[in-house]
Design goal:
heterodimer, A: 139 residues, alpha/beta, Rossmann fold, 6-stranded mixed sheet, 6 strands, 26% strand, globular, B: 338 residues, Nucleotidyltransferase, domain 5, 5-stranded mixed sheet, 10 helices, 10 strands
Chain lengths: 139, 338
Amino acid sequence: MAARLAPALAGGEWLLLRGPLGAGKTTFVRGLAAALGWEGTVRSPTFNLVAAYPTRPRLIHVDLYRLEQPAAVEDLGIDDLAGEEPAVVAVEWPDLLTDRPSREPVLRIDIEPSGDLRLITLHPLTPPAARLLEAVREG
Amino acid sequence: MRVLGIETSCDETAAAVVEDGRRVLSSVVSSQIDLHARYGGVVPEIASRRHLELIDAIVAEALDDAGLDGASLDGIAVTCRPGLIGALVVGLVAAKAYAWSWGLPIIGVHHIHAHAFGGRLAGDGAGHGPEPPFVALVVSGGHSDLLLVRDWLEPRLIGETRDDAAGEAFDKVARLLGLGYPGGPAIQRAASEATAPIAMPIADLGDSLDFSFSGLKTAALRETERLGPTETRARAADLAAGVQTAVVTPLAEKSVEACRRHGVASLVVGGGVAANAELRRRLTEGCAAAGIDLVLTPLEYCTDNAAMVAAAGSERLARGRVDDLSLDVESMAPIPRL
């Protein structure tokens, strides 16, 4: 699924990964990083909250599991990590993330474990995210 | 040679002065754990602001404790990678300011390399730690790394976690069981009261020296669901004990195996999780049986501190590997694989 989504990502997209502990959110990001050309490991970024991968476009992996209060994006240093070019930002436990403007493509990815299977539902939350859905459908 | 070390990569603001890379003249650590416990973990913006408020006073205290001033130092070592960007920047900018105003060389230090130097601070106080080659196990909330150190300045990664760090597994399970933050000490405390530990799975990674703790938190979650809230509360200690065993067992066994596989006779253990009593017990047993010289980093230098940074910086300085004021921070800095 992540590999099908990857070619449609140009930078500037927000992927909000939801699902219970152990659903496979980090696994999804691992697949995404690999599809974007990253050959190293992708570990849980829980401790540092954010991790950046030098893929094209750049991938920023965020995990808000440890937060108990809403986090403004500015506070996470995402902008610093993204650098000059727009990056793909994948956020685990995104409920505490403050809302993104509707001009940005924001795709919610719900992962629901069902035994050994995973039910993945994609929800475009903003109009520009609709094309991501198309890309996955056609990919 | 006297080096001032500065450490601000996560939630400890620390400064220390170390002589000849081994003798700790002073070590001051101000933890933000109380501050962050309210939020269930580190909050980057709060961490940076707190570092900024504390750094000057902490450095002054470290110099004062050592009975020295800036003029009597030979260099300034600072953790510049990896860690929280905003937090690292505070330490680095402070270090640059001191280095510039006292006319001293600045030495950038890798946080995980620094933990491997914890062994030099061990022993009889005169710092007769192990010399390379040795294997270092660095386990904390953010890392679970096995390093092969043949040269102090060129450690090579021989094992690492593929997903969650050991301390992170403790944090997540502790939160699941309502035991509080930081999770390591909470799990250890609860586990000590276990009567019938609940066995937890250990990832089978074949011959690899890597670790995997992600499945453990899922298994613990399933167990709490199976038990239900009332029974989970009643058996929190048994669950904690099972989780502790499932974290400690691969750490201890693979550390010993790493020494055997690479023909190395010493093992250095550092990082916050190295304070775990059960891990220390298992390592002591395993190393004794395998004839390995076990060097446990003293407890005060297991969690983040600046003495290890000064020690690592001293080695670099002695070999002329210094940086200049263009030194920058890096949030991620993977250690090369062997």
